Amino acid sequence: MPVEPAEQPVLDAVAAGFPAAVGVLGRLVRIPSVAFPGFPDEPLTSSADAVAQLLQDTGAFDLVDVRRAEYATEGGTALGSPAIVARRSAAPGRPTVLLYAHHDVQPAGRPELWDTPPFEPTLVGERLHGRGASDDKAGVVTHVAAVTAAFEALGDALEVGIAIFVEGEEEAGSRSFDAFLAANHDLLDADVIVVADSDNVSTTVPALTSSLRGNVTAVLEIATLDHASHSGMFGGAAPDAVLAAVRLLDSLWDADGAVAVAGLTTARPPAGSPAGPSIAQLVADAALLPGVRPIGRGTIADRLWYGPSITVTGIDVTDVLNASNTLLPSVRVRISCRVAPGQGAEEAFAALERHLREHLPFGAHLGITDVDLGDPFLVDQSGWAAAAARAALADGWGAEPELTGIGGSIPFISTLTERFPAAEILITGVEDPDTRAHSPNESQDLGVLRKAITAEALLLARLSRRAG
Ligand SMILES: [Zn+2]
Q1: For the domain that residue 221 is a member of, what is the CATH number?
Q2: pLDDT attached to residue 468
Q3: CATH number, domain at 110?
Q4: Which of 84, 158, 223, 329 has its CA 20 to 30 A from that of 434?
Q5: 335 and 429 co-located in one domain
């Protein structure tokens, strides 16, 4: 649907409010709101309060509040990170849309890897650099700026109901997510859920995410000896834990680097699925060194979106500086397995555990702890809200959106669909291939931010005219 003359005030309000939106993004980036265990709670509280104030300032909401949910742990209960909720009631007969983003961020990691200070918003060309500048404080700003513009332009004619849920612990595993939804169900209930926490094809082509892989992460402890011993005395006859771990890990992939675990399934891409990136694009986006070849088989979409993957993300072993001539008795390995759409995370973990136990060399002992599971997800693109979102993206960006899968996981998506089974879920975002979310030198392209706000403001305006 082309932008109608009646929608021009919405576009004007987005344009007028954009410099302020960029300023708000900078202010939020300055708050190091990391929800990982061991990080202070205070920045999360000030970040939540700042987001609540922004929503209050829109003047559009009947209620804005910062809330925490109690959730069950192994030893009892704990309190989740502060989340922001808000609600504007729908006019009779109009739908309600729930806008989701998260205000917590990944830790900055090693500061020397950053070109600019991680919590100091810094404009470099068209990109605002800083931890959380994109993931997902730009998602928060998109919702705030879109509501602001739509309400300024339409006033009481903004008839769509709007619920807001800005989570405070997405990067830390959304521990209290389900408890929070249960405790705030009626406040957050909606016909459509817009999740602003995903990627775009490029800075000029928007995407609607149509599939997400699930994940299984675990820590493996591989042990062969009761204690360390001299490698000269026993090496060659007594198996050390590093040898056993290397052999065990090697069994997880075949010669092409494709996953070789029986029982981990691959999905058949649904009809009309996106083609995915080319090999050249993968090489560029993932920054493969000269001469390094991609792993796996099939199209890049088959490998990234519809197939499983296994990655070793950490190993606890003696470091080189402290290496002495000993046989190491045990090694700890953290592995991260991405699960193809169509397979439950629990079933995938069972297949992985079976494989590991069957391939343990030399009778080594294996302990598996810290298991974390998230289910994959295929988004239904056939509903009215998906059509409305595609049209709004096309008009907001001036380019037709592409359906894309993402290789990453957003485990809370399946929780959302369980709690709100009738709602249509739309996964949008403000990232692009240069965003470097979770990595040093994360940044947000401001052109993308502006287009994302425009598209969402148009969607809110159009839903205000739609029968719910
Ligand atoms: Zn995120």
Answers
A1: 3.30.70.360
A2: 64
A3: 3.40.630.10
A4: 84
A5: no
